[in-house]
């Protein structure tokens, strides 16, 4: 068997060195080292080798296997190097280089960053919270009744353990009040999720920017003044605003703020954001969770507001379909590169 192994070693090394292509080399690998290869067949004969000779023959068998494997790897590298060199022979170094494309921020990022900059100038700090929430943070703490449509599985993404994907970033406001005593002034940008059928005006995941201000003697006048300044800084001095009554479970009174721009949406009014004075019931829920009276509604008052950035981007950029914002089509995104 030793003679057969030596003969196989010599034949294998010659054939490997004569291989001209990676395909031929792979065939030789299978021929010598595969399950039905020559070396595998020889190794099956170990059972017939006398017991006294097995250590020597076994050692030689391993040496031949390692030598063939190393030779295959070395020849493979040699063929690859030759192929690379051949490819460079036809390279024309005088040809102009491919133009490098300059990246740019996504239009939603541009809009969100601009809004955050304006609100930070007004003293608002950034706050954050988890995308996966409990019903208490998402609904109960915000005075949302048990029969509210948003609590239904047809509207909200529930997880098997009873938690859910937040339907708004208002939960960030609750987490902020639980962790900090008033006065507080925060904004919470982030993703929200609802079971909406995806179409030209709806997404199941969208982006919101919400704000909360709690202090002594905060009034509707403070709310209106803050939002009027914010809208004009964000959309320009020609932006007109109007405020009209609405209903939200977590604010009382509640309002919708509409905006009108000369060259956007054909000059028609469009809904921009919802807002209102924080309902005392929300403060009571926070106090109960904190175990104190830090947010005593007889002492503290505040306002909250929230806006959807995707819909605003559609109006500002004249987008016919909201899905353009999530399809990553570079032909569309290139329009926003500076």
Assembly category = single chain
Total number of distinct structural domains: 2
Shape: elongated
Strand residue content: 15-25%
Major sheet size, sense and barrel closure: 7 strands, mixed
Explained architecture:
- There is one protein chain.
- The protein is α+β, with helices and mostly antiparallel strands and 338 residues long.
- The protein folds into 2 domains: 2-89, no CATH class; 107-336, 2-Layer Sandwich (BirA Bifunctional Protein, domain 2).
- The protein is 42% helix and 19% strand.
- It contains 11 helices and 9 strands.
- The chain has helices spanning 2-18, 22-33, 38-44, 54-89, 107-121, 135-138, 170-179, 220-235, 280-290, 309-317, 330-333, and strands at residues 125-126, 132-133, 164-165, 184-193, 205-215, 240-248, 251-260, 270-278, 301-308.
- Strands 1-4-5-9-8-7-6 form a 7-stranded mixed sheet, with helices on both faces. It has a two-stranded antiparallel ribbon with strand order 2-3.
- A hairpin with a 2-residue loop joins strand 6 (240-248) and strand 7.
- Helix 1 (2-18) runs parallel beside helix 4 (54-89).
- The mean pLDDT is 88.
What is the structure about, briefly put?
The chain is of the alpha+beta class.
């Amino acid at each position: 068997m030793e003679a057969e192994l030596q003969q196989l070693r010599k034949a294998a090394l010659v054939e490997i060195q004569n291989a001209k292509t990676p395909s031929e080399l792979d065939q030789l690998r299978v021929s010598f080292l595969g399950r039905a290869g020559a070396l595998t067949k020889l190794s099956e004969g170990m059972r017939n080798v006398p017991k006294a000779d097995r250590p020597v023959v076994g050692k030689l068998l391993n040496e031949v296997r390692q030598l063939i494997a190393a030779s295959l790897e070395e020849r493979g590298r040699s063929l690859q190097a030759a192929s690379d060199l051949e490819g460079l022979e036809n390279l024309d170094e005088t040809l102009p280089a491919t133009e490098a494309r300059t990246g740019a921020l996504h239009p939603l990022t541009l809009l969100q960053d601009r809004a955050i900059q304006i609100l930070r100038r007004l003293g608002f700090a950034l706050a954050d919270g988890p995308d996966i929430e409990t019903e208490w943070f998402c609904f109960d703490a915000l005075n949302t009744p048990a029969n509210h449509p948003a609590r239904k599985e047809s509207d909200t993404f529930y997880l098997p353990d009873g938690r859910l994907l937040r339907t708004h970033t208002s939960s960030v406001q609750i987490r902020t009040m639980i962790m900090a005593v008033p006065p507080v002034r925060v904004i919470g940008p982030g993703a929200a999720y609802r079971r909406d059928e995806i179409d030209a005006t709806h997404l199941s995941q969208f982006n919101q920017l919400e704000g909360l201000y709690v202090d002594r003697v905060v009034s509707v006048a403070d709310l209106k003044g803050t939002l009027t300044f914010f809208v004009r800084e964000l959309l320009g001095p020609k932006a007109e605003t109007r405020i009209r009554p609405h209903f939200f479970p977590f604010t009382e009174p509640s309002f919708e703020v509409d905006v009108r721009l000369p060259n956007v949406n054909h000059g028609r009014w469009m809904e921009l954001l919802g807002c209102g004075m924080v309902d005392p019931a929300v403060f009571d829920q926070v106090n109960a969770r904190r175990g104190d009276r830090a947010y005593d509604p007889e002492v503290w008052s505040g306002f909250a507001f929230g806006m959807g950035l995707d819909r605003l981007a559609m109006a500002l950029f004249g987008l016919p379909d909201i899905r353009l914002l999530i399809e990553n089509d570079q032909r569309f995104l290139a329009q926003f590169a500076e």
